[in-house]
Amino acid sequence: MKVKTILVSQPEPKTETSPYFDLCDKQKVKIDFRPFIHIEGISVKEVRGDKVDLTSFTAIILTSRNAVDHFFRIAEEMRFKVPDTMKYFCQSEAVAFYLQKYVVYRKRKIYIGTRTFPDLAKLIKKHKSEQFLLPCSDKLKPLIPNELDKLEVNWTRLDLYRTVVSDLSDLENVFYDVLVFFSPSGIKSLLKNFPNFQQKETRIAAFGNSTVKAVTEAGLKCNIVAPSPETPSMTMALEKYIKEANKK
């Protein structure tokens, strides 16, 4: 069957140069964007219940922009003035750059990984005497605590935000040729919103092994998989599939 409509389970790109818009123009398909999940901050009351003393830490490990936002949100709500001596270990340049929203960059000690957490762990290892705080979500990847435990550093996890299923009830009678997912949480949201979902002729695209696994465990068929050596991005995988489907 031909592909004419696609629903991407993420917010619409803010940049006009997004490859999704190129895909629309080149393949003459309609692409809609809708987050299937969203982030909610954990309340100060809940955070206080964890009995974590923010004054006892000398370094913060930041793995995402959400972690940055919610650490400084909680600090403000708890009237904790983050000391100028605080060290920041950022997983990527993007996270470090975002940190400038809250601190004067040139006056802080900021350490930047290349992209993955194991890369950042190499920098953390050089500062083993620090007291590390890891602000994170309730869906923390096991890789991160495993890496930190291997380093034998003094670190504390603090959940500051959680992943929540979005309300998609307005889509109940809306149908797309392709649904695009990037995490197991997206599949969870689909099934929670539509427990009687029948795939029928709908094609499902999944990014990453864990997402593909979630699709198959839900009893659904994964028709488009990324990344792969041939199609390292989701838009490339979609374009390849569309070309084949629409030429029939």
User: What is the H/E string?
Assistant: EHEEHEHEHEHEHEEHEHEH
β-strand percent reads 15-25%
Helix content: 25-40%
Overall outline:
elongated
Distance between the termini: 8 Å
CATH class (first level) name of the largest domain: Alpha Beta
Structural class label? alpha/beta
Poorly predicted parts:
none
- Oligomeric state of the chains in view: single chain
Spatial sequence of strands, sheet with the most strands: 3-8-7-4-5-6
Radius of gyration: 21 Å
How does CATH name the architecture of the largest domain?
3-Layer(aba) Sandwich
The biggest beta sheet reads: 6 strands, mixed
Strand tally: 11
Helix count equals: 9
| CATH fold group of the largest domain | Rossmann fold
Overall pLDDT metric: 95
Characterization of this structure:
This protein has 248 residues and is an alpha/beta fold. It folds into two domains: 5-36 and 167-246, 3-Layer(aba) Sandwich (Rossmann fold); 40-163, Rossmann fold (3-Layer(aba) Sandwich), CATH 3.40.50.10090. It contains nine helices and eleven strands. It has helices at residues 19-27, 44-49, 65-77, 93-98, 117-125, 143-151, 184-193, 209-217, 234-246, and strands spanning 5-8, 30-33, 37-41, 59-62, 87-90, 109-112, 131-137, 154-165, 178-181, 203-207, 224-226. Strands 3-8-7-4-5-6 form a six-stranded mixed β-sheet. Strands 2-1-9-10-11 form a five-stranded parallel β-sheet, sandwiched between helices. α8 links the parallel β10 (203-207) and β11 (224-226). α5 (117-125) runs parallel beside α6 (143-151). The protein is elongated, with a radius of gyration of 21 Å.
